[in-house]
Amino acid sequence: MTNPETWRLSATELTQLTRTGDLSAEGAVQASIDRMNAVNPALNAVVEDLSAEALDRARALDIARAGGAVPGPLHGVPVTIKINVDQKGHATSNGVPALKDLIAPADAPVVENLQKAGAVVIGRTNTPEFSFRADTDNPLHGRTHNPWGRHISPGGSSGGAGAAVMAGIGALAHGNDIGGSLRFPAAANGAVTVKPGLGRVPAWNPSQSAERGLLAQLMSVQGLIARSAEDLHLSMPSLIAADPRDPFHVPVPWRGEALNDPVKVAFTKNTHGYELHPEVEAALDFAREALTGAGYLVEEAEPPNVFEAGRTGYRALMGEIHALMKGDVDAAGSQPVRDIFAVYFQEFPPFTGDELLQMMAKRTHYARQWSLFMEEYPLVLSPFLPQPFFKPDRDTEGAEGVHEVLGCAVYSYAMNFLGLPAASVPARLAQLPNGPQPINVQIAARRWREDLAVDACAAIEARAGRMCLPLWHQMQAGGRS
């Protein structure tokens, strides 16, 4: 009989039981399905319920294990997949009604890698239209709500993923990130994630009819959102397994060589003119103290101009989006998303023509500056957003709204333009007028050293605690509104 509390277990805790046979894969999956049935109606995080096929797969895993098969590293771990990535037999709608019948002919590499490791997909999670907002709502599936309360956006574009995993719907949630779409939901929901660097995780959608633009290829990555840093260490080695369908994937091991102690961390509160909220400053100070206490050498040091790199990168991306994607948005997008894109083009004036080519070339200049800086400082601790997370639909409120949501998030999209790993971890539970709200900080790392960023997340988490615990208490007490 399934323990009703099994859904609370982390992926690491689950696999310690499922791999030994102390807990069946079916039991682990059933517990998460029961949790999904209990809380998802209020959240709308999972928009396609895959319970039936998930239980069939879990039973098959149990039979194989009983027959002597060696269980995978994620044996029986319930996971969710974002609806903008191909899963065979299911629609890759990307939140767009016109794509609701775009049925994937095969699994994307991330789905295949997770399943090869023994994970079981229990549902597909919501995203905004075209996966291009830092909030999650669309006319096909509706709005996703943050389990901390409806006064906080769930983030985007992997908002369904972040809300699901922190509410206990699956132990791991797949997401992706072109300008912050893993880290925004992590920050909104108090989860932990690492945006992998360029080439780290194989990516491709078999349903796509054309290749993406070059900057989209260079800035977009696949990843996971989790409730704990140790779950990233458990799961990311499976996610990064090579796939020949991504010819630019780099088969680098998850764990790199040990660095000389102490590991140096550059610490900055520089928000480049944006006001730093006291709660964000307190979270940064806490993270610094946690890393220092864990043996890191944390020094105030200013990295190369993140504002210039970030704004240049996003204006270049907007140039590509305007040329290659605006027509699709105009033809298939809702009026709200068309309005948001119009303001995006105001906030980030698109580079065009020769200037776009020059700014794309300048990407190497910025990346080289950061590479040299990180010879001395392998990690950079910084704000993610300068203020606590914003309310739902803030980006529909014109230029001021888009500026608060995305304009000030230079530490986010700069890392995409540079192709560097960047993790997000909660360092404080702020008591704000509308209720408790997690505050995440960002940790950027040297190229190919996602493991270092996750190690630092674990050190901060060890002192701050896991944000799922106060959240679950609040949800059980009826604290959602």
SSE pattern, N- to C-terminal: HHEHEHEHEHEHEHEHEHHHHEHHEEHH
Large-scale geometry: globular
- Second CATH tier, the architecture: Alpha-Beta Complex
Name the structural class. alpha/beta
- Any idea how many domains? 1
CATH superfamily: Amidase signature (AS) domain
Helix tally?
A: 17
What is the tally of beta strands? 11
**Rg computed from alpha carbons, rounded to a whole number of angstroms:** 21 Å
Q: Name the helicity range.
A: 40-55%
Report, as a whole number of angstroms, the end-to-end distance: 33 Å
Order of strands, main sheet, comes to 1-3-2-4-6-5-10-11-9-7-8
Instruction: Tell me the β content.
Output: 5-15%
What is the CATH third-level topology name? Amidase signature (AS) enzymes
Mean pLDDT: 97
Which spans of ≥5 residues are poorly predicted at pLDDT below 50?
A: none
Largest sheet: 11 strands, mixed
Please write the CATH class name. Alpha Beta
Task: Write a compact overview of the structure shown.
By secondary structure, this protein is of the alpha/beta class. The protein has helices spanning 11-18, 25-43, 51-66, 109-116, 159-166, 183-189, 214-219, 229-239, 278-293, 306-324, 326-332, 335-347, 353-376, 398-407, 410-418, 450-464, 468-476; strands at residues 46-49, 78-82, 120-125, 172-177, 192-195, 221-226, 264-267, 297-300, 379-383, 422-432, 435-445. It has an 11-stranded mixed sheet with strand order 1-3-2-4-6-5-10-11-9-7-8, with helices on both faces.
